[in-house]
Specification:
two-stranded antiparallel ribbon, single chain, disordered C terminus, 352 residues, mainly alpha
């Protein structure tokens, strides 16, 4: 068995899992101020992903660790050349995680608003930059003979990469709106349905443009199948949302994300980091991989642990599958006016 090919495919699976699961997390984070009108509704929206967002991020850690162990040359070139965008993603994810934990620590509307803003930025920035980064990888970046990145930050912000960023941002926001339809009741669910209906056609147009550009410029013959599946799935979303079939629509956006990953990795193979300077400088699954012994050990570890991870992920999603309503959220305590507090204190003193 060609273990280099196995790990290339496994890394693609890990990225697909991460983008499907974290994709609706990003979308929900962006939509907190859009769909929620008061503190109880904001907590309702946040609580839909509260039990699962940190588990979903484990897929990113595993994907990064697998890349480092299986293809260290790819990892080194990627993180040196894409240092600033990946640093921005990392900082955004840290701020986002802190926002989840800290927004309820102080009973102050101003405090919660600041952390809600951090949650929005921490969700929006990665949703945009992951599309930029993957588009740049597919298109190729300037590499020298030693596989070192020789471009600048502006090199990574071309039209194709920015279109990829808009595609992932729009797709994840739509994904999050459909997830909220599945997990909420009441006004939030209805607003999510209306928003998903408004987003479905623009996302179809933007994502379709990116997929066609990718296929025509970098794809293989068989990757047309991925483009076709993505287009059909987005068409299903457009039809299903007005009919209230949010489960079908959500499954369709999952299929779109998986198809996009198939298109990306299918367009790359056998490269992992194409060089736009000279194809001879490209990193491939052959010249970027670890030793055979390392891949053998990693394969046995993955075979033992991956089923457990998948089982736990499925179990956690099943446990927290129920819909939430504002009735599940306690009414925030309203502080008594200062004059009333003073009168109450004097009354207690007189009684004593």
């Amino acid at each position: 068995m060609d273990l280099q090919l196995v790990w290339f495919l496994l890394i693609a699976v890990l990225w697909a899992g991460y983008l499907v699961l974290e994709g609706f997390d990003f979308g929900v984070g962006v939509l907190v101020p859009v769909l929620a009108r008061d503190e109880r509704e904001r907590r309702q929206v946040i609580n839909t992903i509260g039990p699962v967002w940190d588990g979903n991020e484990v897929w990113l850690i595993v994907a990064g660790g697998a890349t480092f162990a299986a293809f260290p040359e790819w990892y080194a070139t990627l993180f040196s050349g894409f240092y600033l965008p990946l640093l921005a993603i990392l900082l955004a994810l840290i701020v986002r995680g802190v926002a989840f934990e800290y927004r309820g620590k102080v009973d102050s509307p101003a405090w919660r608003q600041r952390w809600d803003a951090c949650l929005v930025v921490g969700s929006l920035l990665p949703a945009l930059l992951w599309g930029v980064a993957f588009s740049d990888i597919v298109a190729g970046v300037p590499l020298d003979a030693d596989h070192r990145f020789t471009g600048t930050l502006l090199t990574l912000l071309g039209p194709y990469a920015l279109l990829g960023g808009l595609t992932t941002l729009g797709l994840f926001v739509l994904h999050g709106a459909l997830f909220l339809q599945l997990r909420t009741l009441g006004p939030v669910r209805e607003r999510a349905r209306v928003l998903a209906g408004r987003l479905s056609v623009p996302v179809l147009v933007v994502a379709g443009a990116w997929a066609l550009w990718t296929q025509l410029a970098h794809g293989e013959g068989w990757t047309w199948a991925a483009v076709g599946v993505a287009a059909a799935a987005l068409a299903v979303v457009v039809v299903a949302v007005p009919r209230g079939r949010e489960g079908v629509a959500f499954a369709a956006t999952c299929a779109v994300v998986v198809s996009a990953v198939v298109l990306i990795f299918g367009s790359l193979f056998p490269d992992v980091m194409p060089s736009s300077t000279d194809p001879a400088h490209s990193l491939t699954i052959r010249n970027a991989s670890s030793t055979h012994y390392t891949l053998v050990v990693m394969t046995w570890v993955a075979a033992a642990l991956l089923p457990l991870v998948l089982a736990y992920q499925a179990w956690s999603l099943w446990v927290f599958r129920h819909r939430l309503s504002v009735e599940h959220i306690p009414v925030p305590a309203v502080p008594a006016p200062r004059a009333e507090l003073g009168a109450t204190t004097r009354g207690r003193s007189s009684a004593r």
